[in-house]
What does this fold into?
Amino acid sequence: MARIFSLVNQKGGVGKTTTAINLGAYLGYFGQRVLLVDLDPQANATSSLGIEKNTVKHGTYEVLIGSQPIAPNILHNPRLKISLLPSSPSLAGAEIELIDLDNREYLLKRALTNISDRYDYILIDCPPSLSLLTVNGLIAAESGVIIPVQCEYLALEGLGQLTQTIRKVQESLYPDLQIKGVVLTMYDGRTRLALDVVSEVQRYFSDQVYQTIIPRSVRLAEAPSYGTPISAFAPESTAARAYAALAKEILAQDGIIIPVIEE
It folds into this structure.
């Protein structure tokens, strides 16, 4: 059965989608079967992997409302070693349509049970909001929540609200929900502020912060425009090495031995 993680932060621009894509790509590179679920109506994960979001006929939206099964609508990319359940702008209307459905918070979890035995890791890229879609992502996260945090002061705001939301979901819907870890992103070691943010996040989340810190990178920002993760776009860059290290760190936590990769 797959390890299922949701990447969550209600603040936009913190590297959530970037982390979902590149962590997934490197997990695939290290021999894991990976599915990325784009749960965001903005469909940035979809377009960042080279899929035009306006051409998606069936994806997350149709799976959630029950008009389509999940398996036939997963896109596979053997070259990038990652599969994708794409999103499209139509997902924006799901919030209204889901309200009247029974067990609406569990729709994604139910859909993933049908295919979880086909993957080693399922990463859910949640929208930058504390919405019903995000609640679906949290409840589906059987292995925990990964929280990307940008190394800037404003990124610290809202973390308390996010942890409160996680606590409410634990209390009312999913008692086993846990925070798997916190990923520090967009780090610029030249600034005192970045150092202060790292220190503050480590103090707040204690031993839940990953040792790997993702640096600010022009190459990382360019990769989505080419429809490819950093592992294929600039594999020798500092950002690529950082995401490779993060994937190794997560695999080590899960007790998975990384196979030797033949170049």
Observations:
- The chain has a mean pLDDT of 92.
- The chain has one domain: 3-253.
- The beta strands are 3-7, 34-38, 75-77, 82-85, 121-125, 144-150, 179-187, 209-215.
